[in-house]
């Protein structure tokens, strides 16, 4: 199985994510999409596949040096990157705004599927991959295939270092609340990293 989306926007998002992230962060972005899409299939949720894919691939670009903002939380910086990329792809303003919104909301309080299905799915996907939330709900064969194709490569420790850096420099951001709320313990206990 492949977890890429063969559309102009999907190819562009993968190209940009591949260019600006290391393999661990890129694989996390792909896994986040895959978990979200699998969750949608299991729960009969209808969603905009391209919007979710593009948002998932770009959601952590604000953690990378070229896009790290000293004034904005990383998810807001990543949302702006998504707006710029999708403008170049010819997306209308409302759709560009949705990509930004999905990325920003993935770090906010829980969003239900009824409120915003793509934001909900990105939250489910990132939470499963970062801290193992709901990971037991996914078929073990699916998890094994996904991790085989997109291995973790020390993602947990690398991601924790990135969000701790954001928290230290931007104490009022969502990453700071996430770190203060026990991120290290949750990331360290992720069953996806168990031998």
Task: Give the structure's gist in a few sentences.
The chain is built from ten helices and no strands. With 195 residues, it is an all-alpha fold.
Number of strands: 0
Using only CA atoms, what is the Rg?
A: 15 Å
Poorly predicted spans: none
How many helical stretches? 10
Helix content: 55-70%
> Averaged pLDDT, please?
96
Binned strand content: under 5%
Query: By helix and strand content, what is the structural category?
Result: mainly alpha
C-alpha geometry: globular
For the largest beta-sheet, the strand count, sense and barrel status come to: none
Cα separation of the termini:
23 Å
The sequence of SSEs as H and E is HHHHHHHHHH
Explain what the structure shows.
The protein is 64% helix and 0% strand. The chain has helices at residues 8-20, 23-42, 49-58, 74-88, 93-105, 117-131, 140-149, 155-169, 174-180, 183-188. The mean pLDDT is 96.
Which short descriptors sum up this protein?
mainly alpha, single chain, 195 residues
Task: Please outline the helices and strands.
Layout: H1 8-20, H2 23-42, H3 49-58, H4 74-88, H5 93-105, H6 117-131, H7 140-149, H8 155-169, H9 174-180, H10 183-188
